[in-house]
Amino acid sequence: MRTAISPNNLYVASEAKEYGIVQVSYFETMESVCRIKLGVGRATHVSFFPDNQHVLVRAHDSWYQDKDVLKIYNAFDGSFVSQCIFDADDPVISRDGQSIFFSFGVGSSLAQWGWQTSKIPDILFDGRVFKKEEYFVRALSDDNTKLIVNKYPAIRMDWPQIREYSRSPHLEIWDVQSKSVVRSIQGFQNASLLPNGKLMVATSAEDGSIKAVDLESGQIEFELSPPSKIPNAPWKGHLLVSPDGQYLIAHTQSDKKVGVWSIPDRKLLYELPWDIFSVYQDLAVTPDSRYVVQHPGNKRWDLETSQEVLCG
């Protein structure tokens, strides 16, 4: 996501219009707090740490062979704190803020970075040699012990039967300590954990329907209705769950709409207008579960009433 809201709901950080700048502003007024200068890279991901003091930026940096480097900055003065020079994708910050989990090597490998103690990450899985699969980090359990990962067979453009090749995604539950897969759930993608930590919502790769899956057993607990239309691609159709577990935000049957579901009632509440040419990851949900926010943060919708709110 290129827009993030601080856990205390006071600040918003987003990629600015100017190249290589992340703007940190007050959430209510959109008045500037500081401008983080990335140098020669543009921001492809922004998120706040739990301490509300630091911002994680995934920056496309030409100094490092156009790799997506992870960089950490002070949220209030824009000063540089640390960086990890890996071609990183889909970073997820642990609940205690001490570790960052991500895939790297064009999605072939997984790593954990303890940024306060080292600039070198701990590699959970290294698949850079053969690149048979692509991994996308989706979520991390609150106790930092389980990592939910999307796994796709890698597309090899040198395969003679490439036209007949079909990607079949599935979800893997990784045990962080043992660096091993404890459960594989076939046919699902784009997962997001519910606040209780026992269930995750995921999209069916077959028909795009959204289902709640038990993390331990892999059994389907319930399905949301009507079905959504989630594109069968790892970079589209991310699922956003409000922190209070009441709302789910995802694509609907129309690519020009974003649906808001009631998770307890398991039904679609309403649809929001959405530009098909916009980046879906530009949506964020506020930590107080009040708004869904569109990049760069001044356009938002009240989740309870569906009313659009403009500020700044």
How would you sum up this structure, described in words?
By secondary structure, the protein is mostly beta strands. The chain has a domain at 92-186. The chain is built from no helices and 28 strands. The protein has strands at 3-5, 11-15, 21-26, 32-37, 41-48, 54-61, 67-74, 80-84, 88-93, 100-104, 109-113, 122-125, 133-140, 146-153, 170-175, 180-186, 188-193, 199-204, 210-214, 220-223, 240-241, 247-251, 257-262, 267-273, 283-285, 291-294, 299-302, 308-310. The strands form 7 sheets. It has a 4-stranded antiparallel β-sheet, with no helix packed on it. The chain starts with a strand and ends with a strand.
Key terms for this structure?
312 residues, 4-stranded antiparallel sheet, 0% helix, mainly beta, single chain
- For the largest beta sheet, what order do the strands appear in spatially? 1-2-3-4
Describe the main β-sheet briefly: 4 strands, antiparallel
Extended strand count: 28
> What class do helices, strands and sheet pairing give?
mainly beta
N→C terminal distance = 20 Å
Query: Could you give the order of the helices and strands?
Result: EEEEEEEEEEEEEEEEEEEEEEEEEEEE
Name the beta content range: over 45%
Helix content: under 10%
Per-chain topology:
Layout: E1 3-5, E2 11-15, E3 21-26, E4 32-37, E5 41-48, E6 54-61, E7 67-74, E8 80-84, E9 88-93, E10 100-104, E11 109-113, E12 122-125, E13 133-140, E14 146-153, E15 170-175, E16 180-186, E17 188-193, E18 199-204, E19 210-214, E20 220-223, E21 240-241, E22 247-251, E23 257-262, E24 267-273, E25 283-285, E26 291-294, E27 299-302, E28 308-310
Antiparallel strand pairs: 1-2, 2-3, 3-4, 5-6, 6-7, 7-8, 9-10, 10-11, 11-12, 13-14, 14-15, 15-16, 17-18, 18-19, 19-20, 21-22, 22-23, 23-24, 25-26, 26-27, 27-28
